[in-house]
Design a protein that fits this description.
The chain has 307 residues and is of the alpha+beta class. It is built from ten helices and four strands. The chain starts with 7 loop residues before the first helix and ends with a helix.
Length: 307
């Protein structure tokens, strides 16, 4: 057991932030209990139709807020690591006390990174599992499609990657800014901008698939029901693509397309549900690469500035 006991800067870091560390399993347990209770209530056959009873509505509402909360989790992680864990010690000068205990600056920073990364990785992975437990009951409904904002991040490893990015950015920005509140704000902003940027790019990681149907035939089977629609419109005899409202703009009515437009088919570009996991893994790899770069810069900085 003695070999498993935390020592040195690791013990100090855990001791300093034990309340925040205990919050992680408490959040997981509370989320799990809530999801299990709502699932059990929603499955009660005496509550009426699944999509109209109060239990199902409560489950949907809880999952909606949970998904939005998990999207912001990496920002909160980054802000905490940047502020209370890193910048506050530099701002107050208490980090010098650690150096008097035979801790090197590298060991001081490494303890913070390891403790935070371990707690965050385990905690966020557990929260993903809890969210998926409730999401399977509401998936493929409004706001809970596998590609929707919130559901996408909260159901896969990409959330763990973003949380680890928050840790890496936190220790880097905390050293650069050295003011608790300012470091928290900057780290949260950088993490949020990364989320938005990669969220805007993620559906370009893989090529779309295309479904076509002869015009004026039915467009119902252009793509699977579970797919993510990216683009749709018309194909002309020359192969040119026209937007979905081309006929309306030309004819100013909801009728058939004018004959001189030479439209022969409808097309739809989409991502099938099978693209979910490859996209998750690609995005997670990018995020982890960014986290590794930020972490490398943080350790270089602590070595240059503090020896």
């Amino acid at each position: 057991m003695s070999a498993l006991t935390l020592k040195g800067p690791y013990w100090v870091t855990v001791r300093q932030h034990r309340l925040a560390l205990w919050t992680v399993p408490a959040l997981v347990v509370a989320g799990l209990a809530s999801v299990l209770a709502l699932r059990a209530w929603a499955s009660d056959p005496h509550d009426g139709a699944l999509y109209s009873n109060h239990a199902y509505s409560a489950l949907r509402l809880f999952m909606e807020f949970a998904g939005k909360g998990l999207v912001f989790l990496p920002l909160l992680v980054g802000a905490f690591v940047a502020g209370p864990m890193t910048a506050r010690e530099l701002e107050s000068g208490t980090w010098r006390l650690a150096l008097t205990q035979s801790f090197t600056p590298k060991a001081w920073l490494g303890a913070k990174v390891l403790v935070a990364a371990t707690a965050v990785a385990l905690g966020s992975a557990a929260l993903v599992g809890v969210y998926r437990l409730g999401w399977v009951r509401v998936s493929m409904t409004y706001q809970f499609h596998w590609a929707d904002r919130g559901a996408y991040e909260a159901t896969g490893p990409v959330l763990v990657g973003y949380c680890l990015l928050g840790v890496a950015l936190g220790v880097l920005v905390g050293q650069l800014v050295r003011r608790t509140l300012a470091a928290m704000a900057v780290t949260g902003l950088l993490t949020g901008l990364t989320l938005l940027a990669l969220g805007a790019l993620r559906w370009s990681f893989l090529p779309t698939e295309t479904g076509t149907a002869p015009y004026p035939g039915s467009p119902v089977h252009l793509m699977p029901n579970s797919a993510l629609l990216m683009d749709t419109g018309y194909l002309t005899a020359s192969g040119e693509r026209l937007p979905y409202d081309a006929c309306f703009r030309r004819a100013q009515s909801g009728g058939d397309c004018p004959a001189d437009m030479n439209i022969i088919a409808r097309y739809t570009d989409f991502h099938p549900a099978s693209h979910y996991w490859p996209t998750q893994l690609i995005e997670t790899s990018i995020v982890l690469a960014l986290a590794a770069a930020a972490l490398y810069a943080a350790f270089r900085l602590v070595r240059v500035r503090r020896g």
